[in-house]
Each structure stands twice: as structure tokens, then as C-alpha cells.
Write a structure and sequence with these properties.
With 307 residues, the chain is α/β, with parallel strands linked by helices. 46% of the residues lie in helices and 7% in strands.
Length: 307
């Protein structure tokens, strides 16, 4: 709520009073006015489905203090923000409810989702899809491109929902760290910001990384492993493993193929989610895949704001 305060005052300069204020001149009506942003049907829907259910704020109105001022950012489009909120609820929050119980989601999912209309474009030719901050907030970007992807499950997943699961993984890791053995599997293969440049932008599967970005660091690798696994079908995952079945850099890999390295990492991820959070990642993937098919088939009304 923005408050605009209008006030009147008497001004004195030096010893000379240019305007005097007497009791007779005072207006009995208040000189303070408050302007509030009207509540929309979307606000009411969010109160019921996000605030009351998960104690989670889904912010679709632009707030510059929430954005990264190092980038040019624009507000999220209202209609596309409505669709995104439905998708976040159905493809993310409720999948964790289904597999881990709603108490898990309420306790661990961040308490704020802030949306921005555009992606954050960087000087190296890449752009940021989303960020997680301090375990409390996820920033989702590129909302104004959502309609360009809405009919393409692969694009929808790549640009938005893998990002949410990726960032949520970071939040879980901040609460409970994963085993140190994970970072040792491809420990000498991490290349920081060079992940998007040659030769790292290709052949990453054979080097033991599920995506080019996974080569950034072990923390990003872990989040990529989990988010890529649960948001893609078993067929797609197995296709990637077949592509990874080889040795690209023996100095890094030794005698292990990329496929073997990826599967070793997956074992650590699986054990972490099971032992730390009581989450079976295969059940989680099955839930997400089923729900993605519901979205693709148009079985979920993404514009319905009835409560």
C-alpha cells in the first residue's frame, strides 16, 4: 500500500511572520489523505491460495527495492502474472504437498515470490532466469514472455519451472547441506563463469555434467541435477545418459564416463532428499510429469480467479 500524505504548514522566516495561523482559520477537515491501491480479484485469489495456505506472498506489482538495480527491469504483466501464479501453485507447491506433505512445503518453501517482467541480461550473452535470496525469497524473471511459452511444455519448463525447483533446491541446501562427496565427483571440472563459453558450452554431458550451467560450481551442479531430473521425463533423462556415455577429458574424469559421473551424483542427490527431507525424487518426478501433462492438455484453467 502506498501512502501519499498531503500537509499544510505555516512558514516563518527570520523574525518576520509572513502568514499567521489562527484557530479561526483552521479547517476542521483532515489535511491528511491516504491513497491505497484497489484490491483486485487476483489479490483476493492470492490471499486464499498463497497467503492463507502457505503463508507465502506472491508479489506481482513492481517494487524497485525488491529488484536488482544493476539490471534494467520492468513490471510483470498482470494477465501473465495470473497464469504464472496458477502454474507455480499446480506444478511446484502442490507437487511438494503431494510427495512431502503440506507441512514440508509450508516450512521450507520461501515466503516470498517476486516477479519481474523481463529477464536479467548479462554482458557475456547469458541471462538470469531467477534467483534465491537468503532462503526467504525467489525472484522469477521474464514473466512477460510466459505467453510465448505457454503452449510449449519444454520451453515452459526450461525458462520457468526448472528455475523454481532449482532455486528451491538452493534453499533446502542452505538449511541442510549435502554430503561433501558430491563436489569431489567432478571437483576439478568446475569452471565458474566460463561455463557458457567454448569449450564448456558443448560436450558437458560427456564431462559428467547434466547441463552446461552445472559446470559453474558444485552448488549449481547439485541444483541442476535435482531440477533437471524431476522436471524431465525418464525418456529424456535416459537420452541424456546415452549421450554422456563416453570420456571427453581423461584428466578430469579418469576412467569414468560422463554417464557414470552423472549417475554417481544422482545417487548423492537421491540420498540427500530421502534422508534429509523424506522426499522420494522418483515420486516427485512422477507428480510433476503428470501435472505437466495436465497443463499441456488444457485441463487446468490458468485464468480462473474464483475463490
Amino acid at each position: 500500500m502506498k501512502k501519499i500524505i498531503v500537509y499544510a504548514m505555516c512558514v516563518a522566516f527570520g523574525a518576520v511572520m509572513f502568514t499567521s495561523c489562527s484557530e479561526d482559520e483552521l479547517n476542521k477537515e483532515s489535511v491528511i489523505t491516504v491513497t491505497t491501491v484497489p484490491e483486485t480479484p487476483f489479490d483476493k485469489w492470492l490471499t486464499v491460495n498463497f497467503v492463507n495456505t502457505y503463508n507465502l506472498a506472491f508479489k506481482y506489482r513492481y517494487e524497485d527495492k525488491e529488484a536488482d538495480m544493476d539490471f534494467y527491469t520492468v513490471p510483470a504483466d498482470y494477465e501473465q502474472a495470473v497464469e504464472l501464479a496458477h502454474l507455480v501453485k499446480y506444478l511446484c507447491l502442490e507437487t511438494y504437498d503431494e510427495v512431502g506433505g503440506i507441512d514440508f512445503t509450508r516450512s521450507n518453501f520461501p515466503k516470498e515470490i517476486f516477479t519481474i517482467g523481463e529477464f536479467e541480461y548479462q554482458n557475456n550473452g547469458t541471462f538470469v532466469l531467477g534467483t534465491a535470496e537468503g532462503g526467504k525469497k525467489i525472484i522469477l524473471m521474464g514473466v512477460n514472455h510466459l505467453d510465448d511459452c505457454i503452449d510449449d511444455p519444454e520451453m515452459l519448463n526450461h525458462y520457468y519451472f526448472k528455475t523454481i525447483h532449482h532455486e528451491f533446491t538452493h534453499i533446502l541446501n542452505q538449511t541442510k547441506d549435502y554430503a561433501a562427496e558430491f563436489k569431489e565427483i567432478t571437483g576439478t571440472g568446475y569452471v565458474a563463469d566460463s561455463w557458457s563459453s567454448d569449450p564448456y558450452s558443448t560436450n558437458y554431458l560427456k564431462r559428467g555434467f547434466i547441463s552446461s550451467y552445472a559446470q559453474h560450481s558444485d552448488t549449481e551442479d547439485f541444483a541442476e541435477m535435482l531440477s533437471m531430473y524431476i522436471t524431465n521425463s525418464a525418456e529424456q533423462w535416459n537420452e541424456w545418459l546415452e549421450q554422456a556415455d563416453g570420456i571427453y577429458d581423461a584428466k578430469i574424469q579418469g576412467q569414468s564416463t560422463g554417464k557414470e559421473l552423472i549417475l554417481s551424483k544422482l545417487d548423492v542427490v537421491r540420498d540427500y532428499m530421502e534422508n534429509s527431507w523424506d522426499i522420494d525424487i522418483d515420486k516427485l518426478r512422477a507428480s510433476i510429469q503428470r501435472r505437466q501433462k495436465d497443463i499441456a492438455a488444457g485441463r487446468i484453467d490458468l485464468k480462473d480467479l474464483s475463490i
